[in-house]
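Tip: read the tokens left to right.
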């Protein structure tokens, strides 16, 4: 069934936008009578556009692309995710990698914004959206993070012995120097949003929500051939201080973003024999 339709005045560019809770009902610019066309189908294209299919006097008319207001999604026909899409999605999961070797090429303008939009569509406990994204651009701040990593990495090495220590010393565990984008992702533990729903009993769910946002961003980035590297060998409190952020913000992820120098279908830590990836069955229990 079609959602409620309203007539929307045509914009000078021939497009129209869907107001909240409704779907556009397009007044054909070239219809002499000014009769609105009947909407036969509406699908969502990407994030910001609707594809509207019309009939005029039962005859299919050309499809029209219009900008969608985000709130219009609620009444749209959901996309028809077909087998081809599922195969692509599976390829995206398989080809997502943690990247530590970046080309210095900058990301296209607006891509970061698209990635942050994707991240912000993540689920969050009580709809608290506790993620706080901090773009780290200043050279002194980046240098402080790099120094933090070097200290913590030396301390981490001291915890390994024998072959593990030899192997650990050879691993490249960050791409801080080359990555064109540094994005620190924090959890605001004191957010009032969500009114404590779910997080009153399990406060850690605020941080889990931030991880969900990071995963969205990671996959969205990969879909644009952009690599993400998660750096956690850091003193998180020092990062927060160095970036001059509120005490209630906990560092969840320090991310490097950029175009990868190499593409791999297997994790680097597996290739270098640090650890093996397990089949899901190894972690499935029945009770
Ligand atoms: C929470 C988290 C923290 C991570 N921290 C680091 C890190 O400090 N350095 C690093 O090289 N990789 C880090 N990684 C990446 C993992 O090593 C990587 O995900 C794993 O080896 C599997 O490889 P893949 O992501 O390419 O599938 C982290 C990943 C996660 C999810």
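Filled-in amino acids:
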């Amino acid at each position: 069934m079609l959602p409620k339709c309203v007539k929307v005045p045509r914009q000078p560019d021939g497009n129209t936008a869907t107001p909240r809770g409704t779907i556009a009902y397009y007044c054909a610019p070239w219809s002499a009578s000014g009769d609105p066309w009947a909407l036969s189908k509406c699908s969502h294209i990407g994030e910001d556009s609707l594809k509207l299919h019309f009939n005029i006097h039962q005859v299919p008319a050309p499809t029209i692309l219009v900008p969608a207001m985000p709130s219009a999604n609620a009444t749209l026909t959901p996309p028809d995710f077909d087998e081809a899409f599922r195969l692509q999605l599976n390829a995206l999961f398989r080809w997502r990698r943690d990247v530590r070797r970046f080309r210095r090429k900058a990301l296209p303008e607006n891509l970061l914004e698209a990635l942050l939009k994707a991240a912000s569509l993540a689920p969050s406990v009580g709809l608290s959206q506790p993620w706080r994204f901090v773009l780290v651009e200043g050279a002194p701040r980046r240098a402080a993070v790099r120094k933090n990593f070097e200290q913590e990495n030396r301390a981490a090495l001291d915890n390994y012995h024998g072959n593990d220590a030899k192997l650990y010393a050879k691993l490249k565990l960050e791409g801080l120097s080359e990555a064109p984008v540094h994005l620190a992702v924090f959890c605001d533990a004191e957010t009032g949003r969500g009114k404590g729903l779910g997080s009153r009993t399990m406060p850690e769910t605020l941080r889990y929500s931030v991880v969900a946002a990071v995963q969205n961003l990671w996959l969205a980035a990969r879909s644009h051939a952009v690599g993400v590297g998660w750096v956690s060998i850091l003193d998180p409190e020092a990062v927060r201080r160095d970036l001059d952020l509120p005490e209630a913000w906990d560092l969840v992820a320090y991310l490097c973003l950029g175009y990868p120098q190499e593409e791999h279908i297997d994790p680097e830590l597996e290739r270098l024999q640090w650890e093996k990836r397990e089949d899901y069955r190894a972690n499935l229990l029945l009770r």
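Residues 5-75 form one domain. The pocket of flavin mononucleotide is lined by residues 97-98, 100, 173-174, 230-233, 267, 269 (CB under 6 Å).
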